[in-house]
Amino acid sequence: MKIKELTCINCPLGCALTVTLDGEKVIKVEGNTCPKGKTYGEKEVTNPTRILTSSVEVIGGKLPVVSVKTASDIPKNKIKECAAGLKNITVQAPVKIGDIVLENIGGTGIALIATKNVERR
Amino acid sequence: MQEYELIIVGGGPAGLAAAISARENGIERLLILERDYELGGILNQCIHNGFGLHTFKEELTGPEYAQRFIDQVFEKNIPYKLNTMVLEIEACGDEKMVTAINKEDGLMRLKTKSVILAMGCRERPRGALNIPGYRPAGIYTAGTAQRLVNMEGLMPGREVVILGSGDIGLIMARRMTLEGAKVKVVAELLPYSGGLQRNIVQCLEDFDIPLKLSHTVVEVHGKERVTGVTLAEVDENRRPIPGTEEFYSCDTLLLSCGLIPENELSVKAGIELSNITSGPVVNESLETNIKGIFACGNVLHVHDLVDYVSEEAKKAGQQAAAFLQEKESDKKEKTIIIQPEGGIRYTVPQKIRTESMEENLTVRFRVGKVYENVYVNVYLGDKQIIHKKRKKMAPGEMEQIILKKSDLTQELKFDKIIMKLEEA
């Protein structure tokens, strides 16, 4: 049995959750005051994920950088590694919102997409 | 001289939503004036996600949220001027005069029948914080650092201490970490954070960045460049406790210590401001004490979610349109004051003309400290018209209640509403 303590992020209440695990299996979530807290607690201890947002350099654009995000959430423990990998990435202007900047970021199988339009200089 | 029906000062989220709504309500001759080189305002530097959950039912980044509105401005052919600074707004009777300047047009005097103030807010700078020590390079407001990193591709420093746990500070703790900087600590003067719960978890806890509550910077070290800061714990009167000092070496200090509505233009125009919100005092139509001048977004009061800014601005656009289309404008109307008491710091609007009010009026407010299990009660004289339980309330979370016109027009003898927090 393993016990993990965390704070629910669904609303300002910020319930202190206690999740009890048997190996990888969630036995119970306590401290939540709504069903969202239970779902969050279960996911957060078994498969925590986040959307990564950052910016990458643009070549030949009106702006020096373009903001980007992962098309869907990626494992939390990959965030730092994926962000560090963006240092050497450049894109050619023009860039449009939704354009794919990287097909598969850090081997996650998730694409990195632009979140801003940058015109050609 | 050019003549307009409506001039909107500011092309950020509030200005954009106000312009779109005014156009949808039939206003043709309108103009947005924006001082930056692009529309979208602060959203352009807020590249993190979490915007639009209420408005679009999906999670967008700041630039994506802004673009949804910018696209509508383009589709509706709403005119705007960029790189344009508004210098003055004057009200002379029914006419208003807006003085603005840019490189193409030079100095412009624009005549208009109405104005929407949508100038947003700015960060409290170091000078307003009374931090002792030298004035070396390396001290930035969190928002300035955000603009440098996210829009200009520049890094303000490598070893960072953040003072203040407002949302921008928390967001920048994560952002600087992801860009390779070491964020050593976030210090917060108050015993609680003013930031959203999800930001504390996802921006600090995810990266093991400590949050020191009831702590402040008591000294900044370094003459040319910051070399470190000394933090100390503070007592309940926010005074540093001797013996608790701790040195942190760093080359950068970011400040996230609150936002102030930007109302220099409003003051010069003769608009009455609230000394609590630092924004204009408005009625149910978001109209200031000057007829035909409306306010919305962060210039009115600082919001935590852009979705609410858009909603408020949409209303300001509707109300400006209604004002312009109104035939007879000098209705004698009864005005009711909303008086915040017992824990409620302020409300927006601050007053209501009952005749002009829509059936349901959203009143937004903030509380002064953290409360648990309290009731928001609204009274007309002795009569309680609203009684709502809240499990938890915090100064960092904007609250709202809905007032019903029918409740206010039944009891005609009262000229104020009392809104307060009470224990069960």
Task: Describe it.
Chain A is of the alpha+beta class and 121 residues long. Helix content of chain A is 15%, strand content 37%. A five-stranded mixed beta sheet of chain A has the order 8-5-6-10-9, with no helix packed on it. A three-stranded antiparallel beta sheet of chain A has the order 1-2-3, with helices on one face. The mean pLDDT of chain A is 93. By secondary structure, chain B is an alpha/beta fold. Chain B is built from eight helices and 27 strands. In chain B, helix 1 (13-24) runs parallel beside helix 7 and helix 4 packs parallel to helix 5 (197-204). Chain B is globular. Chain A binds chain B through residues 6-9, 11-14, 33, 50-55, 57, 63-65, 67-69, 76, 79-80, 83-84, 87, 97, 115-117, and chain B through 44, 47-49, 59-64, 67, 149-153, 177-180, 196-198, 200-202, 205-207, 391-394, 397.
Write the layout of secondary structure elements.
The complex is a heterodimer of chains A (121) and B (424).
Chain A: E1 2-7, E2 16-22, E3 25-30, H1 35-46, E4 49-50, E5 53-59, E6 65-70, E7 74-75, H2 79-84, E8 90-92, E9 100-102, E10 112-114
Parallel strand pairs in A: 5-8
Antiparallel strand pairs in A: 1-2, 2-3, 4-7, 5-6, 6-10, 9-10
Chain B: E1 3-9, H1 13-24, E2 30-33, E3 49-51, E4 60-61, H2 62-75, E5 80-81, E6 85-92, E7 95-102, E8 106-117, E9 121-123, E10 139-141, H3 142-152, E11 159-163, H4 167-178, E12 182-188, H5 197-204, E13 211-213, E14 215-221, E15 228-233, E16 246-249, E17 252-255, E18 259-261, H6 264-269, E19 293-295, H7 306-325, E20 335-341, E21 344-348, E22 351-353, E23 360-367, E24 371-380, E25 383-393, E26 399-404, H8 405-410, E27 416-422
Parallel strand pairs in B: 1-2, 1-8, 2-5, 8-19, 10-17, 11-12, 11-17, 12-13, 20-27
Antiparallel strand pairs in B: 3-4, 6-7, 7-8, 9-18, 14-15, 15-16, 20-22, 21-23, 23-26, 24-25, 24-27
